[in-house]
């Protein structure tokens, strides 16, 4: 007992220094954990306010919390004299190995983060991306789930989406319907344009502004092509497209406006040789 007391008296300054370092390390770890929770919580609230999928938000906030906690642990260990350089080197080597092994998955992960941050589309939008045309069902961290118009469920890797062009048909509130109507050369052009104008005016879904555009676009080989371009609300696009085509055909038939179709005339020549 006397030896322990004597040892303590001789080294009390060193022991006190170690104790203060340990207390400082504990304080750093405790404060760092509070900061990590606060930062991840703020990020989660910010992403949720932008109406990002809750599962994706939870995943990202947990990743941020883990990164901050690792940094906090390294700072605490460094405070008590542990050489953290070797730990950092080991983590770096492990991260490099995992990155090489999961190169494709990391590319999908990075693309998912880009989609979440820049939001080129959201759930419910009708898009053309990654070679698939359909409605976005879910945006996940590695892939985007889409539903095609015939109700097929397609899972598209995020890297494939961000690696090409993205067409978002739902991004704007209005769209232009582009139709090309061909009439025969012997039909009354003015009458045909008047009929088309009346069909567009009678449809309540067509917007008055911008004004519909009806013009002759081409004198083709077998038809006079007329462009018909009304503006509609995005949700009315396909209804107006299909209904207008049907009305044009029925009305043209009633008014005697011919719609040409491809034809080919075959002439057969027969050589008649006189008998000698």
TrEMBL record:
List GO molecular-function terms, semicolon-separated.
mechanosensitive monoatomic ion channel activity
Q: TM segments?
A: 15-36, 56-81, 87-118
Cite a single Pfam family from the UniProt record: MS_channel_2nd
Cellular component GO terms held in the UniProt record = plasma membrane
Membrane topology per the entry is: Multi-pass membrane protein
The UniProt entry, under InterPro entries, shows: LSM_dom_sf, MS_channel_1st, MS_channel_C, MSC_TM_helix, MscS_archaea/bacteria_type, MscS_beta-dom_sf, MscS_channel_2nd, MscS_channel_C_sf
Does Transmembrane helix show up as a keyword for this record? yes
Q: Is Nucleus included in the keywords of this UniProt record?
A: no
Q: Where in the cell is it found?
A: Cell inner membrane; Cell membrane
Can you tell which superkingdom this protein's organism belongs to?
Answer: Bacteria
The residues covered by the Mechanosensitive ion channel MscS domain are 105-170
Q: Which UniProt keywords apply?
A: Cell inner membrane, Cell membrane, Ion channel, Ion transport, Membrane, Transmembrane, Transmembrane helix, Transport
Start and end of every Mechanosensitive ion channel transmembrane helices 2/3 domain?
A: 63-103
Q: Which SUPFAM superfamilies match?
A: Mechanosensitive channel protein MscS (YggB), C-terminal domain (SSF82689), Mechanosensitive channel protein MscS (YggB), transmembrane region (SSF82861), Sm-like ribonucleoproteins (SSF50182)
Chief location: membrane
- Residues forming the Mechanosensitive ion channel MscS C-terminal domain are 177-259
Spell out the coiled coil positions from the record.
Answer: none
Quaternary structure? Homoheptamer.
- What protein family does this chain belong to? Belongs to the MscS (TC 1.A.23) family.
- Role this protein plays: Mechanosensitive channel that participates in the regulation of osmotic pressure changes within the cell, opening in response to stretch forces in the membrane lipid bilayer, without the need for other proteins. Contributes to normal resistance to hypoosmotic shock. Forms an ion channel of 1.0 nanosiemens conductance with a slight preference for anions.
Q: What is this protein's record name?
A: Small-conductance mechanosensitive channel
């Amino acid at each position: 007992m006397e030896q322990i007391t004597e040892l303590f008296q001789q080294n009390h300054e060193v022991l006190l220094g170690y104790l203060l370092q340990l207390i400082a390390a504990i304080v750093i770890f405790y404060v760092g954990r509070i900061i990590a929770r606060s930062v991840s919580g703020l990020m989660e609230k910010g992403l949720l306010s932008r109406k990002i999928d809750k599962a994706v938000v939870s995943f990202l906030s947990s990743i941020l919390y883990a990164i901050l906690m690792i940094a906090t642990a390294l700072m605490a260990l460094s405070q008590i004299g542990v050489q953290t350089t070797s730990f950092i080197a080991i983590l770096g080597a492990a991260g490099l190995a995992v990155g090489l092994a999961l190169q494709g998955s990391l590319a999908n992960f990075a693309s998912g983060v880009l989609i979440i941050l820049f939001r080129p589309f959201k759930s419910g939008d009708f898009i053309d991306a990654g070679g698939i045309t359909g409605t976005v069902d879910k945006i996940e961290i590695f892939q985007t789930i889409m539903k095609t118009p015939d109700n097929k469920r397609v899972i598209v890797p995020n890297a494939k989406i961000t690696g090409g062009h993205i067409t978002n048909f739902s991004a704007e509130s209005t769209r232009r319907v582009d139709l090309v109507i061909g009439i025969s050369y012997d039909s009354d052009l003015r009458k045909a344009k008047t009929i088309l104008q009346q069909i567009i005016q009678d449809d309540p879904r067509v917007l008055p502004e911008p004004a519909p555009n009806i013009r002759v676009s081409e004198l083709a080989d077998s038809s006079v092509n007329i462009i018909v371009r009304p503006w509609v609300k995005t949700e009315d696009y396909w209804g107006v497209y299909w209904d207008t085509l049907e009305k044009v055909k029925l009305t043209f038939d009633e008014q005697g406006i011919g719609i040409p179709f491809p034809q080919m005339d075959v002439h057969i020549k027969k050589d008649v040789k006189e008998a000698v």
